[in-house]
Amino acid sequence: MSTVVKKGAPEHRMPLHHFLNATYTVKSWFLTMDHKRVGLLYLFSIGFFFLIGGTFASLIRLELATPEADLMEADQYNVAFSMHGIVMIFFFLIPSIPAVFGNFIMPLMIGAKDVAFPKLNLTSWYLFIFGGSFGVLTTLLGGVDTGWTFYTPFSSTYSNTNVLLAGMAAFIAGFSSILTGLNFMVTIHKMRAPGITWFKMPLFVWGMYATSLIMVLGTPVIAITLGLMMVERGFGIGIFDPALGGDPVLFQHLFWFYSHPAVYIMILPGMGVISEVIAAFSRKRIFGYDFIAMSSVSIAVLGFFVWGHHLFVSGQSIYAGMVFSFITMLVAVPSAVKVFSWMATMHKGSVSYDAPMLYALGFIGLFSVGGLTGVFLAIMGLDIHMHDTYFVVAHFHYVMVGGAVTAFMAAIHFWWPKMTGRMYPEGWSRFAAFLIFAGFNLTFFPQFIVGYLGMPRRYHVYPEEWQLLNVMSSAGATILAAAFIVPLIYMIWSLKNGKIAGPNPWRATGLEWILSSPPPEHNFPSTPIVREEPYDYGEVIDNPVHKEEDEKV
Amino acid sequence: MKNQFQLHPEIASTVALDVDLLYFFVVAISVFFMALICVLIFVFAMKYRRKTEDQQAESQSHGNLLLEIVWSAIPLVLMLIMFVWGVYLFFKVYQIPNGAMEYYVVGKQWMWHIQHPTGQREINEMHVPINTPVKLTMASEDVIHSFYVPAFRVKNDVIPGRYTSLTFEATKPGEYHLFCAEYCGTEHSLMIGSVYAMEQEDYQNWLGGGLVDESPEEAGARLFSQLNCITCHSDQAGARGPSLNGKFGTEEVLKSGERILIDEAYIRESIVNPRIRLVAGYPAIMPTYQGQITETNIFNLISYIKSLPSTEGAQ
Hints:
The complex is a heterodimer of chains A (553) and B (315). Chain A is mainly α and 553 residues long. Chain A has one domain: Cytochrome C Oxidase, Chain A, CATH 1.20.210. Helices cover 65% and strands 0% of the residues of chain A. The longest helix of chain A is centred in the middle third of the chain and has 35 residues, at 248-282. Chain B is α+β, with helices and mostly antiparallel strands and 315 residues long. Chain B contains seven helices and twelve strands. Chain B has helices at residues 16-47, 65-94, 200-209, 216-226, 229-232, 264-272, 295-307; strands spanning 101-108, 111-115, 121-123, 125-129, 134-140, 145-149, 154-158, 164-168, 174-180, 193-198, 251-253, 259-261. In chain B, the strands form three sheets. Chain B has a five-stranded mixed beta sheet with strand order 3-2-1-5-8, covered by helices on one side. In chain B, helix 4 crosses helix 7 (295-307). The longest helix of chain B is centred in the first third of the chain and has 32 residues, at 16-47. The radius of gyration of chain B is 28 Å and the shape is elongated. The interface between A and B is large, with 102 and 92 residues.
């Protein structure tokens, strides 16, 4: 379907000047003030961390193919799952869509020349890299074995691994998140082009706004929490260790006060992407715009009051548990609203099945499974049995991989032509989307079953009656790992050999599609004035060739 | 029981079936919604497939307030049902019946110490009679652990510095997995064991076979004099500490004027952190025993204090 060039229309050519060929020096990249280049810097960095995190994931699944310990020692296994979690969450999922597409696309969508604070934006990236190097150093020095949750007093007193380094890694990366959130909020408040009122913003921008809210309000709490944990470990000052007069469960409260909303940092941007993709590939106005926009904000706000659902069996008061259980279940309502609205958007649309849409449809299914299984865990009476089992592992992978990563794949396939000016091969991209979907389900669906049977998380060896389900899971992981290599190859291939995309290969609405692909260095030659509603698919949108002045050589 | 492919864990306690019923209810709802979503996606995918390059959508409808309210309300109502049911079940699982057999459990890296009401001790194995409510009072020597028996559908964290409790009633004889469900370091996945649920008669036989050098009360009595608790905590007039005779389960007035129920948790706190809640009328002279006494010995002391008869009437 990428043959959207109308028959008889002139062949597309690359624009003469764009942000990629404006300058070629190394300095121009590492000291760039261009939000688009910062977005690409993030893309390379998180891609690197995804590979590290993915390697640890592969090790975990290889080890669990048999019930005995054969590939790794217990300590090595504990390092593998801890590093997998830390790297994937703090260095891939949290920055992923906001830092890459929030940076690259969001200012274009609102007709801005850049984000509000370009220097701060670059600073965020440097902080991310600084934190990331602590993460890499932790890995090189043997890793950490506390799990990504750093529960005390194990982390603060008992672990013999590099807890301080790993804590610092997450601590520093947090500041990058705070600054990015701040930057986006100011950008969205102050830099929207004339005519883009709050309720005319693309839904991706709403997603970014809700995400930024959590980043700014939540991240300081995790920084303080990890700081306290490190103070206890480093100086023996009693905060969480009962032997020093502290309270170990206090850590869990503080930790989840950030880390549950952090799940929404991962999923809200994804939901924003899906809203864009579904509308574009159905050529139809998004259904229930106001409801979708408000559901993002309500998920962000409600998300701050659900942390206690991680503590139903940690000796938390039953009455506190009831409040947390109730609010958690309320989150299901705005989530369901989004799913229904996306499906209603397809209804009577003109639906095509390019890779971004395949990922978006995959997202709807996988996220729904992730959301519904979250309800199981929010139900107090069920959580007693399911807490800390593989059911939880399967649930959050459905949300984070099935949801956030699938949305990331949708986003990169949707905006790749905009970012690089070239199309990736159509057949391969669809093949990879199917492969990822199949591999993912084979990996994680059996874990729901083995979890309800009672297999606890973070087990290096397990009773042999659960081997079959674990082998299925490991087989799926093999497919999944291979499937992620395919896009990597064709994306790189497309940089040189891909068909030239033209400004608007999907013939989508939105300001980013007016610009040349790749966009000019300073985005819009003059501030655009917007009169239409968002997703105004009422008339045929064309994929024009780049403007004349660019073509004159 | 083992080596065989299962889709569902064994039902071996009084609450297991209740948990499963709610589970299947939520599974049914989830399957219904997933089926609805998948069918609609496939139908829309076929029916509204773009056939020509320029094809526009049939309609640009972008909202229907009634529809949106309905599909917000349906999940809300379902959530409310599940919430109430879940809370009811939670109370049921954690309700501690009167007259339950009291076991003490200590978790430490990486094993479970179990002590029977009659003093038998086990490591990573726990024998319980069926059709008898059992209450576990649990403590940790080091990090957080979690006591989990899937076949009974019960789990609770075992937290250093405080007591947590768990209760269950086995219904079916057999050997069941006991797991540590909270990650606790290197051998977390080896902090496992078995719970043996036995017919009452078999349990009595098993008890008879186990050697008990001293009952928890006896061990507690020995500690009580070894640690010189007896010097202050006596019935003598002018004793420097409150008498403990017959005090368990009663209320005491604190220095702050507050009243407190003397239970396991309060006794434990008074041993490791005696100055937090002082009984009115006594000076703050008791030293802390934090780090000098194991959790097992605290349990023994508690058993001893529980066994002390009231002496008030005698004087």
